[in-house]
Specification:
There is one protein chain. The chain is α+β, with helices and mostly antiparallel strands and 334 residues long. The protein is built from 15 helices and 7 strands. The protein has a 5-stranded mixed sheet, covered by helices on one side. The chain has a two-stranded antiparallel sheet with strand order 1-2. Strand 3 and strand 4 form a beta hairpin. Helix 9 crosses helix 12. The two termini are 30 Å apart.
Length: 334
C-alpha cells in the first residue's frame, strides 16, 4: 500500500484560499477530512493525494500548483527524518539514507543517483500512477528534493538544476523566482542535476532548523495546553505514532525532559505513559473509524502497529468489538 504523510502538503489550505477556492470543499470532494491536514504525521493514500493535487490545479486554474505549493515549504516537510539525513558523511550517503528510510515519510517513491561524466543526476520514480501521470505530485516532489539540495549544498547557485519531464505550461498565474535556465521542462528526468564532484561533499547539518522546529512545537504545546502535561504528552503521542517510534524517550525528548523525569511527573498526577499511549490510540482509532475512510490496515499503520492483527486484538480488548464491527455499528446507529 502506497502511503504518505499529510505533512507533505503543508500549506495546501493557505494556497487554495489564496487562489480563490474553498479548501475544505476540495478536500472532502477528494475523500479527505480537513482535520487530517492538521496532523502532519497522519498517513493517507499516496495515489489519492496525487489526485487531490491534480483536481486542485484544475479548479484553481494553476498548472504549476504542485510546484507553487512546494516552493513555500522548507526541508522539515519530510518530518524529523531531515536531521539524520543531514548528518551523513557525504551528499551521496545522505541521498542513499533518505531512499532507505523514505518509508518514514512516504511509501511508493524512490531516489536514484546516476553519474553521467562530470554530471550527477538524482531522479525520483513512483510505484504507482494516475490519469495525469502524477503531474502535480511530480512537481511537488521534485521541488521538495530541489529545496532540500539547496539547503544541504551551500552556495550551490545555478549549477543545481531542476528537471521536469512535463512541458512548460502555456499559461499560468505564477512564475517561480529562479534564474533562467535553472528550471528545465521537457527534460529526460524528474529530478535534479549538479556537478558529480558534489556527491563527495559533506552536507550542511540542519541542527538549527530542527531545533527551531522542536522549539516551535514546545511553544505550541505550552500555549495550547498550559500546565497540562498529560494533554501535551497525548498530543505528541498522536504525532509520533505513525513513525512507529513513539516511546517514552522520544516524547520526553520532544518536551526537553529526561524520560525518568517525565514518568515521575505523570505519576504525580495519577497517570502513566503506557496509559496515555493506550487512551490516545483508542481515541484516534475511534475518530477514524467513525468519520474517515481509512482502511483498517491504514489505521493500524497510523497507530504505530506493524501488524494489523495486533491492532485488531488490542482494539477488541479495549472495546469488546473488532475495528470493523465497531465501525459498522457506528454507521448503522448513526
Amino acid at each position: 500500500m502506497f502511503l504518505v504523510r499529510t505533512g507533505s502538503i503543508e500549506g495546501y489550505e493557505k494556497l487554495v484560499s489564496q487562489l480563490g477556492q474553498n479548501p475544505p470543499q476540495l478536500l472532502r470532494k477528494a475523500g479527505f477530512s480537513p482535520a487530517q491536514l492538521h496532523q502532519p504525521n497522519t498517513y493517507v493514500s499516496y495515489s489519492k493525494l496525487a489526485s487531490l493535487l491534480d483536481s486542485s490545479a484544475v479548479l484553481c486554474d494553476e498548472p504549476l500548483f504542485g510546484l507553487r505549493l512546494a516552493a513555500g515549504q522548507n526541508l522539515m516537510v519530510v518530518g524529523e527524518l531531515a536531521l539524520p539525513v543531514s548528518h551523513q558523511p557525504t551528499l551521496s550517503a545522505a541521498l542513499s539514507y533518505y531512499d532507505q528510510h523514505a518509508h518514514l515519510h512516504s511509501r511508493g517513491v524512490h531516489v536514484h543517483q546516476l553519474v553521467r561524466g562530470e554530471l550527477a543526476e538524482v531522479s525520483l520514480s513512483f510505484d504507482f500512477s494516475n490519469a495525469s501521470g502524477l503531474l502535480q505530485l511530480k512537481q511537488l516532489s521534485v521541488c521538495q528534493l530541489f529545496n532540500g539540495m539547496r539547503v544541504m549544498l551551500e552556495n550551490a547557485g545555478q549549477q543545481l538544476k531542476f528537471h521536469l519531464r512535463q512541458s512548460r505550461p502555456s499559461q499560468g498565474n505564477w512564475h517561480w523566482d529562479v534564474p533562467a535556465g535553472q528550471l528545465l521542462f521537457d527534460s529526460h528526468l524528474d529530478g535534479v542535476s549538479f556537478p558529480a564532484s558534489w556527491l563527495a561533499r559533506s552536507p550542511r547539518k540542519l541542527e538549527a532548523l530542527v531545533t527551531d522546529h522542536l522549539e516551535q512545537r514546545i511553544q505550541f504545546l505550552e500555549s495550547r495546553y498550559p500546565n497540562n502535561l498529560q494533554a501535551q504528552v497525548c498530543h505528541l503521542i498522536s504525532n509520533l505514532l505513525p513513525h512507529g517510534e513513539c516511546t517514552v524517550g522520544s516524547v520526553a525528548a520532544a518536551l526537553s525532559l529526561h524520560p525518568r523525569v517525565l514518568q515521575k511527573r505523570l505519576q504525580a498526577v495519577g497517570s502513566s505513559f503506557a496509559g496515555l499511549l493506550r487512551d490516545t490510540r483508542l481515541e484516534i482509532a475511534q475518530q477514524h473509524l467513525r468519520h474517515s475512510r481509512l482502511s483498517i490496515t491504514e489505521l493500524a499503520l497510523n497507530l504505530g502497529y506493524a501488524e494489523v492483527a495486533v491492532f485488531s486484538r488490542n482494539f477488541k480488548a479495549w472495546t469488546g468489538e473488532s475495528p470493523l464491527q465497531w465501525r459498522q455499528r457506528q454507521r448503522t446507529e448513526g
